[in-house]
Amino acid sequence: xxxxxxxxxxxxxxxxxxxxxxxxxxxxxxxxxxxxxxxxxxxxxxxxxxxxxxxxxxxxxxxxxxxxxxxxxxxxxxxxxxxxxxxxxxxxxxxxxxxxxxxxxxxxxxxxxxxxxxxxxxxxxxxxxxxxxxxxxxxxxxxxxxxxxxxxxxxxxxxxxxxxxxxxxxxxxxxxxxxxxxxxxxxxxxxxxxxxxxxxxxxxxxxxxxxxxxxxxxxxxxxxxxxxxxxxxxxxxxxxxxxxxxxxxxxxxxxxxxxxxxxxxxxxxxxxxxxxxxxxxxxxxxxxxxxxxxxxxxxxxxxxxxxxxxxxxxxxxxxxxxxxxxxxxxxxxxxxx
Length: 337
What we know:
This protein is of the alpha/beta class. The protein has two domains: about 5-175, Thiamin diphosphate (ThDP)-binding fold, Pyr/PP domains (Rossmann fold, 3-Layer(aba) Sandwich); about 190-330, Rossmann fold (3-Layer(aba) Sandwich). It is built from eleven helices and 13 strands. The longest helix has 16 residues, at about 220-235.
């Protein structure tokens, strides 16, 4: 079994081998530790001159990465927990994302900032958040989220080796031990990929009638959305289509709108709270296109910090039952052929 962590680690090794311009830096990334979630394991042994362990200063780490990118390198910065991206927000928003524009396209900033996000590990309020929504919509900054489908390592390689603009690369903690799912072997689902560098996936139950509901999700929430899709089909005879994004911002709405044009029902699923979130943006885009013909809902965390206690954490974060309730509340009728 190949896990998402395996693929990400192999991708990092492959990029370091492919180009001497790739530099890796972050806190506690040297062997034998290899970073808090072990994505960097083996890198400092294989490439000791290009793996840099840093002080605990997220603003400083990302700032150094920006400077390296301006000098023609392709730095990969690891932020140990996504919760601490707030400390690097100035470097990302006011420097990395702006310098290409401010220089009249005379410089590029091929910087990748990798970071684990999300809860369900019992880490408490300051180490369990899903904060990428605060970086969506920043001109010049791309936000990408890995999932367990298809080619997680290829997604990371694209960000490091092919993208000349800064990328915030989000990795949900629960995805690291998850097995990578091939699009050609999804069991009870049929899968379709569109796009190249940062693809969008469409998932349906095998042999199901035409969908009457569109679900949209990313990252770890795609697993919960797949489970909800099956239960809607088997328990309620409601058949849906799940649209999975890897590029969250700037968003390409075409695959979503194509699905919603058939269903006129949209349910977005994210682990963050829904207020001013990714789902809100998708619903707004769909509403501008379909107007009063659209019925939409959003599933996300409760509007409160994530607790450390397991039962309380489960109560705050969205689950399969929340997705089912929200889908049924949209008044979706039983599907027909």
